[in-house]
Each structure stands twice: as C-alpha cells, then as structure tokens.
C-alpha cells in the first residue's frame, strides 16, 4: 500500500474509532518492550505447542506481520514483503516469523478459515494467530501494540524490544533492519 493511502486509511479508521491509536498519539510502540500476546487461536504451530508468546522468541529477531484477509494493501504489499523477507531468512536460526490476523472490521470476511486460506495462498509455513475484536473495537493485540490497521509490520529485537512498527516497509529495508538487529546494533 502506498504511504499516502496508508495514512488516509489510518486517519479514517482513527476518526471512526477503529484503531487503538485513535487518541491522537503516533501509532505503534517503537522502543518499548513487546507485550505478551492476547490472541483467540493459533494455527500452524510447531509440534508439541498449543500456543506461542513473544517471550518464546527471546534471543531471535522476530518479524510479526498483522493482516486481514480482505485487506488490499496486505495482498499488494504486505504479503509480498513478508514472502521476500521470509525467503531471505527462512534458514536463519536467529530470525523467526509470525503472522496475526487482527480483525477489527469485516468480521465475516476475516474469519479464521479466511485467514487459513490466505496463509495457504502465500505458502508461508509460519505460525499464525487469529485476534478478533468486537464490533467497532480492535482486538487486545492491536491495543497492546497500538497498531494503526493492516498491513502492519512489527520487528522485535533479540531482547524483546520493538524496533520497527508501521504500515510500510520494503523488503530491502526490512532485511537491513533485521541484519542490524542480529548484530545487536
């Protein structure tokens, strides 16, 4: 999604009270400790696991991608970026990936089964979660991370601090940030 479209989408959502950052503050929690995850259900988990939490990834750089199945920007930009970055780091033990379908609107089009179809479409073998809000209210995951909507990317350093969060990140930029975080710079 182009930045001007993302800003417009965020502004509209904030006016409608759909985003946790609708209080006039900058969305995101860059520079803060990543909160525990509050999600409704997990899918495609490693063997023997029935849930995950951000603390499970300490010591690794974590790429968290927030999406909605019906989100055009997720399909035109977010998922292609995630695929490119995943392809670059999929064999790197120091980098992990998680996706979260953060449903704050379009509940009938963003169900867990829609999320499963979307993840299968992109052939991403990563864990993903469903986080649903209630009518006109964002899910707790969005509130805790102060996401501005979707597509939203969060990069967390090995110590558990959010180092990037936002609508737009290009693959080369994400790769550079991850490399820097791996070196603990």
How does the SSE layout of this entry go?
Elements (H helix, E strand, L loop, with lengths): L2 H13 L25 E3 L17 E7 L4 H18 L5 E9 L8 H10 L6 E5 L7 H6 L6 E5 L5 E5 L4 H12 L3
Give an overview of the whole structure.
By secondary structure, this protein is α/β, with parallel strands linked by helices. It has a single domain (3-182), classed as 3-Layer(aba) Sandwich (Glutaredoxin). It is 32% helix and 18% strand. The chain is built from 5 helices and 6 strands; from the N terminus they run H-E-E-H-E-H-E-H-E-E-H. The chain has helices spanning 3-15, 72-89, 112-121, 140-145, 171-182; strands at residues 41-43, 61-67, 95-103, 128-132, 152-156, 162-166. The chain has a 6-stranded mixed β-sheet. Helix 3 (112-121) links the parallel strand 3 and strand 4. Helix 2 (72-89) crosses helix 5 (171-182). It is globular and about 40 Å long.
